[in-house]
Amino acid sequence: MSVLISGVLTDGAGLPMSGYHIILKARQNTSAVVMRTVATVVTGPAGEYAFEAQTGRYDVYLRSCIEREYCVGDISVYDDSKPGTLNDFLTALDEGDLKPDVVKRFEEMVAQAQQSAEAAAESERQAGKHVADAQQIKSDCETLADNVQQNTNAVEENTQRVEQLASQVEDTAEEVRQDAEAAKQAASDAEQARDDIDVALSATLKTANHLSEIAAEGEAAQQESRDNLGLKNAAVRDAQAEIYDRTAGRLALPGAFGYGHLFSSSEVVYFSAQNGPAEFLKWVFEVTPGRYAVTQYGGSGIWYNPIIAYDGGNVYFRGLVDIEIRSGMHTNSTESDGRCITFHGDAEYTGQAGEGPAKYQVLVSKSMSPARLPEAWSRLFWSRDRLRQLLCAGDSTSQRAPQPGSLVLAAYLPDSGSSDVTLLRTQPVPGSRLRQVVFEAEYRGSGFSAAARSFVYGSTLPGTYLALSGGPDVTFYNRGLVSLFVRVS
């Protein structure tokens, strides 16, 4: 059997809420509906709605075309429910509104009344049985009296029998009296239990009436009652469903959006060693902005593709990630194509250079290739020790070839097909045309006695470099041009 629910959906200002989805989620199985099934009704241009609700209990949600659904309460639809508006069903009292202690007291009193009624019935049955016994004894007495009159020789014996039966009659009468008193007490107990039930129901209905009176007085009276209870406006707001729930008007939980939240191991987001960059780029566009705990599994060789390519050869990705959407990063009002990502390395990255946990930042887009991500990060701060380590970093060979970011004094040599050499400042130079340079100077107590001489030594260098000095009008033939270079890759 179904019940008509119809009306107009309005907001607090009385304006119709058109195009809203009214969603009913079944909470239990009934003869008409299966638990967890979902029914959806869309309001009309004037906020009107009308639908036949099947008997059952439902959680009610609202959702517009641009917002996520949110719960507004629950309703119960019975076979004898009267047609009404959605608000009528949402505000109707049912057994769920009774306080647990009242329900428990009510059940105890009902059980007590049932026991008293059963005791009264048993006492009444025993009393009837004893009355029947007394009547039978009386009949026996009358029979014996007739026998006395008919047989005078048995008078004495029959007289004794009569006296014995009379004594039994008195005993039976006493038992009947006691059973009658017990039945009377049981009836009194049942009456008292009924009175207690009436008092409990009256108190419950009185509480409900007080709530109805406050509601009828309007918003000012409702706000005053909330103020008296110390609830303020928090009483009329829904709390966040989780720390990343950003629905407008909801109460924030401790650690909202992840900031200040103490993450547990179950909340850490893990990325694989080999496909970490691809998994990370996909994930940042699937979650809401906020702070998250992250970790990439370790590996080596071709089985390890780091999300961040740390300078100095360290590959380590564990800590906190902040995901932001900043102004100017979106292409339209509903979807952003860019994310500003800030990574805060945890304390295990601290120590070797003494600069504190690593902190990197990158701007990513949906079109970014995972292969570009490891080198796209920018380090946000450098300590003096860390900067010195970067400028002086070299490999472990006897030549001490520089690492990316390090400086080297080298001679730029002609290539195999030409004898002239020209070098411009910031000009990219392959390491295959560079060899390191040292200077020699003859020194005496009175000072240098001759001009210094330079020597080119060792093999060519690995990687690519930028020249830090040079000019367009300087050309050398069959000679090397000495300059300071920085390795860039």
From TrEMBL:
Entry keyword set: Coiled coil
Domain of life of the source: Bacteria
Cited InterPro entries: Stf-like_N
Pfam families documented for this protein: phage_tail_N
Keyword Coiled coil: yes
Ranges for domain Lambda-like tail fibre protein N-terminal: 1-133
Coiled-coil segments: 155-193
The protein, known as: Prophage tail fiber N-terminal domain-containing protein
Originating species: Escherichia coli O141:H4
